[in-house]
Amino acid sequence: MTEMTYRDALRKALYDAMTEDPSVILLGEEVGRYGGAYGVTKDLIKEFGAERVIDTPISEPAIVGAAVGAAMTGLRPVAELMYVDFIGMTMDQLGNQAAKIRYMFGGQIGVPMVLRTQGGTGRSAGAQHSQSLEALVMHTPGLRLAMPATVEDAYHLLRQSLRRPDPVVFIEHKALYTMKADVDLDAEPLPWGKAAVRRHGKDIVIVTYSRQLHYALKAADQLAKRGIEATVIDLRTLNPLDFDTIREHVQAVGRCMVVSEGVLTSGVAAELAARITEECFDYLEDPVVRVAGEDIPISVSATLEAGSVPNANLIENVAGRMVA
Amino acid sequence: MTSPATNSQLYDFYAGMRRVRTFEERVGELFVRGHSAGSMLHLSIGEESAAIGVCSAMKPQDTFTTHHRGHGIFLARGAEPARMMAEIGGKEAGYCHGKGGSMHIADMSLGHLGANAIVGGGIPAVVGAGLSAKIKKTGGVSVAFFGDGAMQQGILYESMNMAALWDLPVLFVCINNQYGMGTRIDQATRNTNLHERALAFGLEGRSVDGIDVEVVAEAARELMDQARAGRPGFLAVSCYRFYGHARKDKSPYRDPAEEEAGRLRDPVAHARAQLVSAGVVPEAQLDTLDAEIAAEMDATIDFTVAQSEPPLASMFRDVYAPEEPEPEPLRTRLDRVLARE
Asked: What is the mean pLDDT of residues A115-123?
């Protein structure tokens, strides 16, 4: 077992992938000499050179577009979008090009690129640097979507993303970079596309991903002290979505809450709640409840910021009321 | 004027341009006869010198992207007209099995990284393809073809900047047919000396008159040679879009006198007149060539009409790689969801 941070694990995944596969290149703003805005690519330029760790101008659409062209011609680019909030700038290249090229061209070619980015609250970064925009990606057929919550998954999901045949949007959480864990990266990882059941309990299923996993687990600890046992499912990837695991546990338990940091309306939690209701209706004791971000922009005030997204106390409170 | 190409080259250029024109005329016919998939068909009639001239400087290892008016370029790179026409008809036998159509046609075996229905959308891919060519030392150049409409899209400038900054083997080719849909170039931008923008980014830049395919070919050859040596470039080819934006557009926004004058700027007729006046090819031989091309292109319509539509189930194919599960069809899902005990 080795102790490392989420950031270290991401860096190691890039290092190992670049060592193993010479076609892997990195390109993005500040990924080289600066080492990445959050330090994930620190010193990789020293290891692999400026030809493979490419500092780009501040041109998000062309960063993604160049990655598309590189991926179509034999490279495995990892493009970096410094903040997921900038994804709107790139949506033509991501949503109209990367996502649709295989389909539009009748399966002639795929776009095996990874778009690394990070999102979420926790650093008083304000309305344009704190969003959770995974629903935009999940709403676009053709794009895979990975959102690691743990140190192990930061490593394994990124390695797996770099072996996928289709474009993967890989959204890290900015509040998790310094999280530490003892990990054995040689242990066999869960397969790509498989959800992890992080805790087993008979009273309620909490379905979540990314940072909210940690709040859900904390809430589950608190609930256990009150005699309420929660199952906690970490989706790990939102596309592919492991609905089999969700269905199995929701049907066995009969009660479900979906937790997401993204805004409530038309969000990931809404999609999951709809699917659970359609597929598990006869097993449910209660309506599926969404615990999600408020339908408001994120503030820089730490108080307003923290208040606008779910936390462990809210999850515990809601679960307690559902089970009661 | 002195011709930079040999007369045999001019004959080939003429034949290529005639094939493009005749193909486009048959696309129009396919639409009129009701066998095209939709009416979003953008003909490159009047622009043939850009396709044939630039592509004459390309090599097998080169890659390219095109825009929504890209039939001629694809033909110039060796496309099979019948498979193109079938794709335009939305048929299974088309290049993309009926999923791409006129504006999303591609063929990796010919280096065609794709046509594009987003103005400027295909441009940055050549930066990535140029990066691949440079890193993998393929000796290839990647060429972006786009119209004057894309000159006002930011993605072009991001892409030109990167290509220049990284010394990529890339050529940007603007086919300036004077109109972005119904907006004339001087209604869209103040400075219509388009290549000057490329110079500002440190690219090699030229503007040429598309009336003469040999002039286009010579400029392209020089710029392609430089691009292959890591000095990316930009070429604007000035021409006139003979007909409307798409098949249903009669271009009422254009002055008939302007259209009449514009259609006189005909690169196909110009090349033909040069060949005949130089006395290299008897006019009768060109008539024979034209008739052969007409027959070849007629056959593409017959082929297309005879082809079948793609099977309905194929719509779930190729969203993801073939080894991945296909998306569950909604109807299957509904049956599953509604089958409650």
From this structure: 98
